[in-house]
Amino acid sequence: MNISQEIKQSFVNGSIVTRLIYANVAVFVLLRLVSVVLQLTGISPGEGSLVLPWVSIPALPSELLLKPWTVFTYMFSHFGFLHLLINMWMLFWFGKLFMQIFDSKQLLGVYVIGGIGGALIYILFYNVFPLFADQVSDSILLGASASVIAIIAAAAFGAPDMEIQLMFIGRVKLLYVGLVAILIDLYSMTGTNAGGHIAHLGGALAGYFFIALLRKNIDITRWVNRVADGVTGLFAPKKRNMKVKWRRPVNEQEYRNEKAAEQKKVDEVLDKIKASGYESLTAEEKRRLFDAGK
Q1: What is the average per-residue pLDDT within 104-126?
Q2: Which residues contact 185 (CB under 8 A, 6 or more apart)?
Q3: Less packed terminus of the chain by CB within 10 Å, N or C?
Q4: Do 217 and 134 share a structural domain?
């Protein structure tokens, strides 16, 4: 088995966490390759300058209306390797914790809803608060961190007493981990990566609302999975129509008669073997004998 087959098998047989990591890595590699080609051919003046605007969320609502698909593409897009590595590491560990509480479909739903929540809060803040007035026209957002924070928040509020082992600290309740992550983003949303930290807060809110509504028997991730199932159904192989031959049920006497007729045919085959040997049997007689043996 070559490496491409191994990757394909790992993707098909892997968990939803594995598939999301593969999707993010694949987009990262694609964006990097396209950027290199554009630079080599002289089309792009700088790294990612022509690629990123097509997959990232713009802060201006007017630009978002022209590129609505970026609401989804941005949450799978990274351009810096360290950015990708940190997000995928967090997705791996906290995704595993999430799966101990909820199922894979809910994880996919929270990932998408967290990404959408992060995008909406990011756009809202950049267009409402004067601090970002000079940046709003040039700002873009990309990365899976809002989606990952949504998964962390959902796990923290869904199982607050669950404990995890942290290096140099020891065992800590999951709720405290989630609250610390949210506090860090609150204190950092006026810093150099303001857009990222603001998006984290949107993701955290999405994770919290998922838990709050789930406790009322409302699962807001269902629509995500309906859409995902519809999309995958378009590429799934068509099922062949199987024709089923209907047979009238028999009563006990008819069943006995059929079995007696079958046994008579088998006895005739056995008598032929005694008289002329096994090699004298026809293909049909050999099949009948084999079926009887089963």
Answers
A1: 95
A2: 149, 197, 198, 200, 201, 204
A3: C
A4: yes
